Amino acid sequence: MSLLAVEDLAIHFGGVKAVDGVSFEVEAGEVFAIIGPNGAGKSTIFNLISRLYEPTRGRIHFDGADITALKAHQIAPLGIARTFQNIELFDHSTVLDNLLMGRHIHRRTNFVQDILFLPKVRREEREHRRRVEEVIAFLELEHYRGKHIAGLPYGVRKVVEIGRALALGPKLILLDEPASGLSVEESQDVAFWIEDMRRDMGLTVLMVEHDMGLVTQVSDRVLAVANGRPLALGTAAEVQADPEVQAAYLGTGDAA
Ligand SMILES: Nc1ncnc2c1ncn2[C@@H]1O[C@H](COP(=O)(O)OP(=O)(O)OP(=O)(O)O)[C@@H](O)[C@H]1O
């Protein structure tokens, strides 16, 4: 059984059919990419899966459960973490604190226990820090641990956002354009991390990305969408060779 199944998903904003009948399944351990020209509906698909948007029709299943009617705050505890196209971090907090915030859904102590700093609280705190330090080591963020987000280069902030999603300890990570705005070297790092996430952490990755080099390097399967509609599904090479995909990209050259 697939880890994520999206069935006939649609959302219409007034007359705009942002997503209109998209179905796909992501297998556990797979790296699955969604590509498409600007305005194709890719981020909207992420917002539907994250339950930020209500679908006009369709169903979303995750790990055997129907999550279509869940609220956004119920998604992370199930094991779905995401990054955003426009980085959403706390600018005036440190890298460490931002990553620790990614752990808040696992907090099992209450306010009074926290104030008294009971042994249970200390144990939990140690566990959160241990997990966050693993993420810092994995993404090679040691140098930035105590630095405020606001003062960091764009490429590092993007990595911290991936880190915050990883700190949550998800089964599925949704990466919204992880390579956008990055240098060639930084994009290559992202490619290695995605491969390691799958191999070392057993993660399933669903990503939206324009950089076809990255998509080709890391994806098992690719879904191309345009105007909210699915165009082709297959390997990166198959999808890029599809005449409908090429026609959708005419003028942008993105998929070439
Ligand atoms: N909240 C909203 N209200 C109205 N229209 C929206 C909303 N969100 C998205 N849209 C519209 O839905 C369509 C798909 O947008 P979406 O951001 O999903 O595209 P995308 O494929 O992610 O594009 P890009 O690659 O440029 O990020 C666009 O026409 C967009 O204007």
UniProtKB/TrEMBL annotation:
PROSITE patterns, per database record: ABC_TRANSPORTER_2 (PS50893)
CDD domains: ABC_Mj1267_LivG_branched
Residue span(s) of domain ABC transporter: 4-252
SMART domains, sorted: AAA (SM00382)
Gene Ontology MF terms: ATP binding; ATP hydrolysis activity
Entries under Pfam families matching the protein: ABC_tran, BCA_ABC_TP_C
Top-level taxon: Bacteria
Keywords for the protein's UniProt record, in alphabetical order: ATP-binding, Nucleotide-binding, Transport
GO cellular component, one term: plasma membrane
Protein name listed in UniProt: ABC transporter ATP-binding protein
Organism: Maritimibacter fusiformis
